[in-house]
Amino acid sequence: MWENKIDINQIVEIRAKTTAFFGVGAIKKMADVAKNLSSRGIKKVIVMTGKSSHIKTGAWAVTKQALEANAIEYLLYSEVTPNPTVEQVDEAAARAKSFGAQAVIAIGGGSPIDAAKSVAILISYPEKNASELYELKFAPDTAVPLVAINLTHGTGTEVDRFAVVSIPAKEYKPAIAYDCIYPLYAIDDPALMTKLPAEQTLYVSVDAINHVVEASTTIVTNPFAILLAKETIRLVAKYLPVAVKEPENLTARYYLLYASLIAGTSFDNGLLHFTHALEHPLSAVKPELAHGLGLSMLLPAVVKEIYPASGEVLAEIFEPILPGFKGTADEADKAFAGIRNWLDGIGVTSSLKDEGFDEYMVDRLVDLAFETPSLDGLLAIAPVKATREAVRNIYTNSL
């Protein structure tokens, strides 16, 4: 296989809108990134992280040294939680503005990076707040420069224009998408991900699969999104079991990280529909729910719902997991069972009921899917009409 001929220690540049430094040891490129920030006249930055992964991975030590070597002052905000909230974003933005931050550096997975994107906007719009941003009360066209140091192989947010932040008071978890929040630089270093727990390794990788399943089947998809979808699923199917069994295996982490990156690029081009639109209410109602787990529980039912309209694409991209499928409408139930069996086989066995949801909550979840700002845009581009009945079917079949 050609994958074995790739030198995973060679740092390459992958360009979309963001320049991503990709490969084992890519964190060392922070020296060049900090130098570039300094050359732009940036003297102060806010660094957005979670509580500890930035330290445990060693990413912060390298970043701190790079900033200090280039005389860039920093303010560390290490209070971002999974499923970050507008309150956290507002607090960080207030601190950033008081400090005089001219750029934002994120160290972490999707939560710190998405929160950092939000802060980058609010620094440029000091009169606005995060609730106004996520309730779509204004549309930003500028943000301060952002650098994303990625610590998980699932979201793809380090190379795309999307961000998600929750509004707990309304049980909303909206998404935004603006060109101004493409990171200037991203660091994708698989060596930073070898300490990911097995459970998180599974969830983030299934997140990448969901990105491409949706991106390749929206009504606005394109051949590029579908091409990336095929490769994403092939790589995840091949290397996810290896990474779970051998968490320090850098080759497995390298290809899962690459799969995540191209999946992010896929949905940056093809966009998303049912699975993300329906997961956001789940983790808005239960913030402790891992985003990737929520997506995993919905995926089989979403595939079943859209298979009659998108069977040919789904059969092709899922070939490594569902070999021999032809894409005909009568395979929908078989596809549902096949994906469920694959998830069980890799260790993702939960259903919505296992995570505390029941049939009495379905109506509320359906309401949130249609009421939450931005989710209507995802539902509008699903390959089958996103009626309340269709949404209810997906939730019910995921119980």
From TrEMBL:
Gene3D superfamilies: 3.40.50.1970, Dehydroquinate synthase-like - alpha domain. Keywords: Oxidoreductase. Residues 203-398 form the Fe-containing alcohol dehydrogenase-like C-terminal domain. The keyword Chaperone does not apply. Residues 19-190 form the Alcohol dehydrogenase iron-type/glycerol dehydrogenase GldA domain. The gene is adhA. It comes from the Bacteria. Pfam families: ADH_Fe_C (PF25137), Fe-ADH (PF00465). Belongs to the iron-containing alcohol dehydrogenase family. This is Long-chain primary alcohol dehydrogenase AdhA. It is an enzyme of class 1 (oxidoreductase). It comes from Ruminiclostridium hungatei (Clostridium hungatei). PANTHER family: ALCOHOL DEHYDROGENASE (PTHR11496), ALCOHOL DEHYDROGENASE 4 (PTHR11496:SF102). GO terms for molecular function: alcohol dehydrogenase (NAD+) activity; alcohol dehydrogenase (NADP+) activity; metal ion binding. The keyword Oxidoreductase applies. Its EC number is 1.1.1.2.
